[in-house]
Amino acid sequence: MEKAFIGLDIGTQGVRGVVITPDGRVLNSCQKRFVTLNVSKEPGRQEQNPEEWWRTAQAVLMELSDTQAEICAIAVDGTSGTLIPLDEQNRPMMNAIMYNDTRSEKQAEWIEDEAHRQGAAFGFCFNSSYTLPKILWCMEHGICAKRFVHQTDYIVGKLTGIYDKTDASNALKTGYDLINNRWQEFVTRLLPEEKLPEVLPCGYPLGEVSAAGAKATGIKKGTPICAGATDGYASSLAACAARPGDWASILGTTLIIKGVTEKLIVDSNGVIYSHRHPQGWWMPGGASNVGGRCIHEWFGMDRLDELNQKCGSLAPTGNLVYPLTTKGERFPFVQTDFEGFSLMRRGKGEETVRYLSVLEGVGFVERMCYDSIVTMGAFVPDTIYTTGGGCRSKLWLHTRAAILNRTLKIPFFTDAAAGSAMLAASTVYFKELSKAAESMGRIREVIEPDSVKAEIYNEYYQEFVYEVNKKRQVKREHI
Length: 479
Hints:
Elements: E1 3-10, E2 14-20, E3 26-33, E4 47-48, H1 50-64, E5 70-78, E6 83-86, E7 96-97, H2 105-117, H3 131-140, E8 147-150, H4 151-160, E9 165-167, H5 168-171, E10 176-177, E11 182-183, H6 185-190, E12 198-200, E13 205-208, H7 211-217, E14 224-230, H8 231-238, E15 247-251, E16 255-259, E17 273-276, E18 282-287, H9 292-298, H10 304-311, E19 320-322, E20 341-343, H11 351-375, E21 383-387, H12 394-404, E22 407-411, H13 416-430, H14 433-440, E23 443-447, H15 451-477
Parallel strand pairs: 1-5, 5-14, 9-12, 15-21, 21-22
Antiparallel strand pairs: 1-2, 2-3, 4-7, 6-8, 10-11, 13-14, 15-16, 16-18, 17-18, 19-20, 22-23
Helix pairs in contact: 1-4, 2-3, 8-13, 10-11, 11-12, 12-15, 13-14
């Protein structure tokens, strides 16, 4: 029986799972959506039910377990900064506070000020998308949890019964010091050490599937579970960005930019933060609030093929759209009160033109992200890997390539689950993460930029940046 590895991605909209062999063949895959994407009714709050995560993950794993292969290990990824307080029986005390929930803005400001006062060097700035401010918000509102866990930790806990271990990428936003591999003294003053998990490098063995986990999922008892990662971390691996000089754009519900560098990039503005590569390198990147969410909310996912076919010949539109569905941006700049805009100079009442303008808007934001990375001293090559649900649109791929004026390489795998499978294989089979990504990842398609459109888009991009900076300045003047 051949060997294989399972990667499980707990995303914003559902759960994806994949079974992959060491040479990159897919033996089985499954995807199931959540019924409810936000159970909160309060403005600015984003919550999901952790039990729905587990029910959906169970259904996915049950299908994946029906695979004629020896499952050698499993790894799980989840949304970065999502938090669940657990009671003494490791049961959720409330709905999960999602990564894009803004209720902890004041706590984030206090933590950032306190960190600077105490000289705690994290290499990033805290904001409301981070886990530690959410923990402080819970404590200030009387939620006396036994422990606070991330989305990934909760699913791993349901599989293994282990809730007091986490991976280094998820621990980052709780304030873990990735430079010295320890919890900062500043963090331990806020949280008792018994509430802080043991932190493992991504891909390292964490535990095994318990009897209860096996019964719930069909996965064999004793199957190794490896420390997973955030969805952005796993997606960049799926995109084959695993060695220094590699950069990847992951276009899913949100836009995530991730790369690999030999040296740490420290950004005092809090736009960029760096995960630690298990081989000692760094994985800088950031996440924007634009992405597939705007397409889902404004046009509906069931009409994308129709819209893509209708508006392919309309590009470039000349319109300038910053497609935010909610207030606030994290990358290419951090501004919690920033609001999107739409300057429609052509086809204002036409749905197809508006749709294409939104696709272009995401591309403009993506270029701004890479431009900001370059200003921090990082090298971004002429070729970028890209993955995520947005890669299913050929129109979007060609539009982004022209706006970036860079070649896009699309791997065979287009979601984070494949990156988690690589993590599962990295230590128990390959011994190095870069070797796992090289062996299991394959390029499906290469998109070259249209030189004529790239020149036109460059002019529109300069106008877009001007409008963004003007809007940001107006916001600051009203503070």
